[in-house]
Specification:
12 helices, 29% helix, 8-stranded parallel beta barrel, alpha/beta
Length: 438
Amino acid sequence: VKEMFLGNDTVEIKDGRMFIDGYDAIEIAEKFGTPLYVMSEEQIKINYNRYVEAFKRYEEEAGKEFIVAYAYKANANLAITRLLAKLGCGADVVSGGELYIAKLSGVPSEKIVFNGNCKTKEEIIMGIEAKIRAFNVDSISELILINETAKELGETANVAFRINPNVDPKTHPKISTGLKKNKFGLDVESGLALKAIKMALEMEYVNVVGVHCHIGSQLTDISPFVEETKKVMEFVVKLKEEGIEIEDVNLGGGLGIPYYKDKEIPTQKDLADAIINTMLQYQDKVEMPNLILEPGRSLVATAGYLLTKVHHIKETPVTKWVMVDAGMNDMMRPAMYEAYHHIINCKVKDEKEVVSVAGGLCESSDVFGRDRELDKVEVGDILAIFDVGAYGISMANNYNARGRPRMVLTSKKGVFLIRERETYADLIAKDIVPPHLL
């Protein structure tokens, strides 16, 4: 039964129940309450080590460093970021808040890169003071601000340049970032990227260290990565021809994950072989750079499960609705991206039925799955929504005045509470009533 859950190595069905890292999911739900995020420490370790092992060949054959910089936007819970830091993982941050968490997690500054297309002066100050590996510059305006800010601080800021290679990632339009029409990066074909780098070389307070590129998220086809790598390396060759040598090439995000459990997708080794083989084709033209990758989803998504309790069942002429206590405020992806997430009843039964699973929010988009075949559902059952470790809790919100859920971590050492459930008092903790309304 375990093999049916592609990508979920630490889940198994035994004695008619679902277990995560060896712990009964129903018992976890009963102890900690629902809705509840469960994160598997062992799955995160497996996912991280697959990247390290797959890209080890680059360090051996190119003689350069390979860095996994975890994309904090996927899930910035302190226990998760601390775990990854202890494993040796770096950080890809996109805000001052994420940089704060990365430093609190113990990530070395030389493994932190700062992304984003609208960095504020306050965030730039934080990055310079933290002595991060590089700001991935998204515009000439930003470059000027970094140089001016570094001058005020009497420091030098390391910068890499995010280029836009105009590569179609063949993914959802809302998570595609490397096409000309997207808001990210400096265009290569028009010469804007080269112009920006030449400007930086004339500046006193920035140090040009690399080239960055990120074409999108949830890629399950290797070919866009190959095209991206070729375009980046061709740009590196062009830079050398201009007398400019760089130390780092950052190729952005990692692989997608198997949300659909009946569809095999490429592995980290497939990705590594494609990228490494492509990069090594240029080793007679340029000195090989250090290689940085920024996976987020593929490190934590398959480690996460949202456990939710069935409170009501309602039959309509169209479908049988199963109403659960989780909602789109707890996990936005299905409502925002029409995203598919595998759902099972944590209690295995002989009879199956087709149902639609919905939350209790006042939105028709508050649906986790339509027309799904599940083991017969009864009021009180616990359902598990799979692969929510990325963009689950990080996108959760308080819509309909609902508190964000609890989160626990399962590991060989036990089951630990790593985020408390928000209370009603938390919902208004930052609100201020002016005197005339008191």
